[in-house]
Amino acid sequence: MSNKGVLRFGKKWLDGVVIFFLIMPIRSFAQSDPEYLMEVGAGVGVVNYLGDFNAKLTKDFQPGATLLLRRLLNPWVGFKFDAMYGKLKGSSEDMKTYYHDYVETPYLFNKTLIDGSVTCEYNFWPYGTGRDYRGAQRLTPYIFIGLGGTFVTGNGTNVFTANVPLGLGVKYKIGDRLNFGAEWGVHFSLSDELDGVKDPYDVKSSGAFKNTDCYTALMFSLTYSFMAKCRTCHNEDE
After folding, report:
1. What is the pLDDT of residues 38-48, one digit of tens each?
2. C-alpha distances in Å from residue 128, one per residue of 10, 32, 185, 203
3. How far apart (Å, rounded) are the C-alpha atoms in residues 207 and 186?
4. Rounded to two decimals, what is the model's pTM?
5. For 85-110, what is the mean pLDDT?
6. 192 C-beta neighbours (distance < 10 Å), count
7. Which residues have a Cβ under 8 Å from the Cβ of 55 and sit 6 or more positions away?
8. Which of 219, 226, 238, 213 lies closest to 54 in space, CA to CA?
9. Contacts of 36 by beta carbon, 8 Å cutoff, 6+ apart
10. CA angle, corner 141, sides to 77 and 49, nearest 5?
11. Residues 6+ apart with CB under 8 A from 72
């Protein structure tokens, strides 16, 4: 090989090495996705009243919708702020319990529900793409518990009370920023008047949750992730 050939070969080799080292950081950077700390989204589903005039989980489903904001502390734990709108419906007609006040004229109600709650969620597996946090899974079940407020209006009555939401769900990361969730929860209220009737049994009771009404919610949601965690902090955690 001539001296010129050697020089050309050496120049091409050097250029290749330079390009390789220029591309390496870019490829490494692209393979480490940011870890997002917030999610915002909405969902739809069904709401079910449970109380004096309904004791079945599968009866009188009514439409519901929710807006939510989630703050992630880490891939295992997060807090969700949830605003839900729905309907509560029930009747004394099909109840086996004897209500002497409603023998001749059955009691019917159809009310509007507004619920606002803050819940703490715990994921069974770290949640993520696997590129944003080592070992994270795109699919994970979770449980939640929290505290909320309930406002029910209709049939000439208004009720505002506190509630304790408790339930479970599953979430799936469709893309780097898009998430799908399905969850079912029971909201234990501190009131016996969500249905508009207080103590139809005419039996006095005491205690926070004795003879009180509650409702369930089955919701399916889509959320969008934002507010990326700074890469320096992310690397320090690893």
Report:
1. 999 999 999 99
2. 45, 12, 23, 51
3. 19
4. 0.78
5. 75
6. 21
7. 95
8. 213
9. 72, 132, 177, 225, 226, 227, 228, 229
10. 100
11. 36, 37, 38, 39, 78
pLDDT of 136-156, one tens digit each?
999 999 999 999 999 999 988
Instruction: Measure CA of the first residue to CA of the last residue in the chain; give whole Å.
Output: 51
Residue that has been written with the tokens 């505002």 in this structure: 160
| 180-183 long-range Cβ contacts below 8 angstroms, 24+ apart | 180/220, 180/221, 180/222, 181/43, 181/219, 181/220, 181/221, 181/222, 181/223, 182/218, 182/219, 182/220, 182/221, 183/142, 183/144, 183/218, 183/219, 183/221
Question: Residue holding tokens 């086996």?
Answer: 96
Sole residue written with tokens 């070992």: 135
Q: What is the DSSP letter of 212?
A: -
> How many Å is the Cα radius of gyration of the chain?
27
Report the distance separating Cα 171 and Cα 230, nearest Å: 24
**Residues ≥6 apart with Cβ < 8 Å to 56:** none
Q: Which residues make Cβ contacts (< 8 Å) with residue 46, sequence separation at least 6?
A: 61, 62, 63, 64, 86, 217, 218
